[in-house]
Design a protein that fits this description.
Blueprint lengths: L1 H22 L5 E2 L3 E5 L3 E7 L8 E6 L2 E8 L15 E8 L10 E5 L2 E7 L15
């Protein structure tokens, strides 16, 4: 139930952010699309930030929360007929599971996608238990 409610809250926040951005009241704030997934060995966050340089993005872990934020200003010369590539600032916050080792986090920026991986602690990984014959 919590996962469903978290996803619903994120979607509502995103809709409000996008609607306010269209009205011009968000001050250049936008929300990049993200993927969050987990596998047997790690917890992964992917953030789509095409055209952004790694030095324009900040990652912070505090109190089991990952904050991904960034700020940049683009070239605003000339008259735009259409402007859909966002500039300004963004911030996304993700709750991290207790099972990860945030000290061993790794972040890689490739082809416009920021990949952040948190390995799971050994004791949190699933393991097989062998059944002994009596």
């Amino acid at each position: 139930m919590t996962t469903y409610m978290d996803a619903l809250n994120r979607q509502i926040d995103r809709l409000f952010d996008e609607a306010l951005g269209d009205c011009g009241t968000s001050g250049g704030h936008w929300v990049p699309p993200c993927n969050v997934r987990e596998d047997d060995n790690a917890f992964h966050v992917e953030v789509a930030i095409p055209g952004w340089e790694p030095n324009q993005v900040t990652l912070q872990v505090k109190d089991k929360m990952l904050t991904v934020s960034g700020e940049r200003s683009g070239e605003r010369t000339g008259h735009y007929h259409m402007r859909e590539i966002p500039d300004g600032s963004f911030s996304r916050v993700f709750a991290l599971p207790a099972s990860i080792d945030h000290e061993k986090a790794r972040a890689v920026h490739v082809n416009g996608l920021l990949h952040i991986s948190f390995p799971k602690r050994e004791e949190a990984k699933a393991r097989r238990i062998l059944i002994e014959a009596a």
